[in-house]
Write the C-alpha coordinates for this entry.
Amino acid sequence: MNRNLALQDEFENDPNGYGYLSMNDQQRYDRLILEDIPILIPIASIATSGYLESINKWNQMNQLSVIDQSQTPPVPRLDAAFHMTLVLGTFDSFDMNDPVQNTVFTNLMNAMVSNNVLTQAEADDILAFGDSLISRDTEIGVDNVKIGEIEQARV
Protein backbone atom coordinates (compact mmCIF):
# COMPACT_ATOMS: atom_id res chain seq x y z
CA MET A 1 0.00 0.00 0.00
CA ASN A 2 1.40 3.40 -0.87
CA ARG A 3 1.90 6.04 1.80
CA ASN A 4 -1.05 8.21 0.73
CA LEU A 5 -3.46 5.26 0.78
CA ALA A 6 -2.11 4.09 4.14
CA LEU A 7 -2.71 7.55 5.62
CA GLN A 8 -6.18 7.84 4.07
CA ASP A 9 -7.08 4.43 5.49
CA GLU A 10 -5.75 5.43 8.92
CA PHE A 11 -7.72 8.67 9.00
CA GLU A 12 -10.94 7.22 7.58
CA ASN A 13 -11.06 4.03 9.66
CA ASP A 14 -9.27 5.34 12.78
CA PRO A 15 -8.65 1.79 14.05
CA ASN A 16 -7.20 2.95 17.38
CA GLY A 17 -9.94 5.51 18.03
CA TYR A 18 -7.67 8.57 18.06
CA GLY A 19 -10.46 10.83 16.77
CA TYR A 20 -8.78 11.91 13.55
CA LEU A 21 -12.02 13.33 12.10
CA SER A 22 -12.05 16.07 14.73
CA MET A 23 -8.34 16.89 14.31
CA ASN A 24 -6.65 19.42 12.08
CA ASP A 25 -3.59 18.41 10.03
CA GLN A 26 -1.10 19.49 12.71
CA GLN A 27 -2.94 17.46 15.36
CA ARG A 28 -3.00 14.43 13.06
CA TYR A 29 0.73 14.85 12.46
CA ASP A 30 1.46 15.15 16.18
CA ARG A 31 -0.62 12.03 16.89
CA LEU A 32 1.11 10.03 14.15
CA ILE A 33 4.66 10.81 15.27
CA LEU A 34 4.06 10.32 19.00
CA GLU A 35 6.14 7.33 20.11
CA ASP A 36 3.72 5.67 22.51
CA ILE A 37 3.08 2.20 21.06
CA PRO A 38 4.95 -0.45 23.05
CA ILE A 39 6.76 -3.17 21.13
CA LEU A 40 9.22 -5.90 21.97
CA ILE A 41 12.61 -5.85 20.30
CA PRO A 42 15.56 -8.24 20.39
CA ILE A 43 17.89 -7.98 23.35
CA ALA A 44 21.47 -7.95 22.08
CA SER A 45 23.92 -10.14 23.98
CA ILE A 46 26.57 -7.44 23.69
CA ALA A 47 24.23 -4.91 25.34
CA THR A 48 23.51 -7.37 28.15
CA SER A 49 27.16 -8.19 28.77
CA GLY A 50 28.02 -4.48 28.53
CA TYR A 51 25.39 -3.67 31.15
CA LEU A 52 26.68 -6.47 33.39
CA GLU A 53 30.18 -5.09 33.00
CA SER A 54 28.99 -1.57 33.87
CA ILE A 55 27.53 -2.83 37.16
CA ASN A 56 30.65 -4.90 37.92
CA LYS A 57 28.89 -8.26 37.53
CA TRP A 58 30.39 -9.53 34.27
CA ASN A 59 33.82 -10.42 35.67
CA GLN A 60 32.22 -11.93 38.76
CA MET A 61 29.98 -14.10 36.57
CA ASN A 62 32.87 -15.18 34.40
CA GLN A 63 34.84 -16.18 37.49
CA LEU A 64 31.86 -18.10 38.84
CA SER A 65 31.33 -19.80 35.49
CA VAL A 66 34.83 -21.29 35.32
CA ILE A 67 34.61 -22.88 38.76
CA ASP A 68 34.40 -26.66 38.46
CA GLN A 69 30.85 -27.46 37.37
CA SER A 70 31.34 -31.19 37.99
CA GLN A 71 30.02 -30.96 41.54
CA THR A 72 27.00 -33.17 42.04
CA PRO A 73 24.57 -31.56 42.32
CA PRO A 74 25.90 -28.35 40.76
CA VAL A 75 25.87 -25.32 43.01
CA PRO A 76 22.83 -23.33 41.76
CA ARG A 77 24.55 -19.94 41.92
CA LEU A 78 27.49 -21.21 39.88
CA ASP A 79 25.18 -23.04 37.50
CA ALA A 80 23.14 -19.87 36.84
CA ALA A 81 26.26 -17.79 36.17
CA PHE A 82 27.69 -20.52 33.95
CA HIS A 83 24.55 -20.71 31.84
CA MET A 84 24.28 -16.93 31.56
CA THR A 85 27.85 -16.54 30.30
CA LEU A 86 27.39 -19.53 27.99
CA VAL A 87 24.17 -18.13 26.51
CA LEU A 88 25.57 -14.62 26.06
CA GLY A 89 28.64 -16.05 24.36
CA THR A 90 26.59 -18.26 22.04
CA PHE A 91 23.70 -16.10 20.84
CA ASP A 92 23.89 -12.62 19.29
CA SER A 93 20.47 -11.65 20.57
CA PHE A 94 17.20 -12.86 22.01
CA ASP A 95 14.04 -12.11 20.05
CA MET A 96 11.58 -11.09 22.73
CA ASN A 97 8.74 -11.46 20.19
CA ASP A 98 9.50 -15.17 19.97
CA PRO A 99 7.63 -16.85 22.85
CA VAL A 100 10.29 -19.54 23.29
CA GLN A 101 13.23 -17.13 23.32
CA ASN A 102 11.33 -14.73 25.57
CA THR A 103 10.57 -17.50 28.06
CA VAL A 104 14.12 -18.86 28.03
CA PHE A 105 15.70 -15.44 28.55
CA THR A 106 13.17 -14.42 31.22
CA ASN A 107 13.67 -17.73 33.04
CA LEU A 108 17.42 -17.22 32.90
CA MET A 109 17.02 -13.76 34.44
CA ASN A 110 14.77 -15.24 37.15
CA ALA A 111 17.40 -17.91 37.91
CA MET A 112 20.05 -15.22 38.18
CA VAL A 113 17.90 -13.38 40.72
CA SER A 114 16.83 -16.41 42.73
CA ASN A 115 20.47 -17.50 42.99
CA ASN A 116 21.64 -14.03 44.07
CA VAL A 117 23.80 -13.42 41.02
CA LEU A 118 21.68 -10.39 40.05
CA THR A 119 19.21 -8.26 41.96
CA GLN A 120 15.64 -8.04 40.70
CA ALA A 121 16.28 -4.44 39.65
CA GLU A 122 19.32 -5.49 37.61
CA ALA A 123 17.36 -8.29 35.90
CA ASP A 124 14.50 -5.86 35.20
CA ASP A 125 16.97 -3.41 33.65
CA ILE A 126 18.24 -6.13 31.32
CA LEU A 127 14.72 -7.26 30.38
CA ALA A 128 13.82 -3.61 29.67
CA PHE A 129 16.35 -3.70 26.80
CA GLY A 130 13.62 -5.65 24.97
CA ASP A 131 11.03 -2.89 25.39
CA SER A 132 10.68 -0.03 22.96
CA LEU A 133 8.14 2.49 21.75
CA ILE A 134 7.25 3.30 18.18
CA SER A 135 5.01 5.88 16.57
CA ARG A 136 1.81 5.17 14.70
CA ASP A 137 3.38 6.32 11.42
CA THR A 138 6.02 3.62 11.85
CA GLU A 139 3.43 1.03 12.78
CA ILE A 140 1.38 1.64 9.62
CA GLY A 141 4.45 1.78 7.38
CA VAL A 142 4.76 5.50 6.68
CA ASP A 143 7.89 6.27 8.70
CA ASN A 144 8.86 9.91 8.96
CA VAL A 145 5.53 11.20 7.74
CA LYS A 146 5.50 14.83 6.61
CA ILE A 147 2.75 17.36 7.24
CA GLY A 148 2.28 17.74 3.46
CA GLU A 149 1.48 14.02 3.19
CA ILE A 150 -1.21 14.46 5.82
CA GLU A 151 -2.68 17.39 3.90
CA GLN A 152 -2.77 15.27 0.74
CA ALA A 153 -4.42 12.36 2.55
CA ARG A 154 -7.15 14.51 4.11
CA VAL A 155 -10.52 12.78 4.00
User: Anything to note?
Assistant: The chain has a mean pLDDT of 87. The beta strands are 35-40, 43-44, 93-94, 131-135.
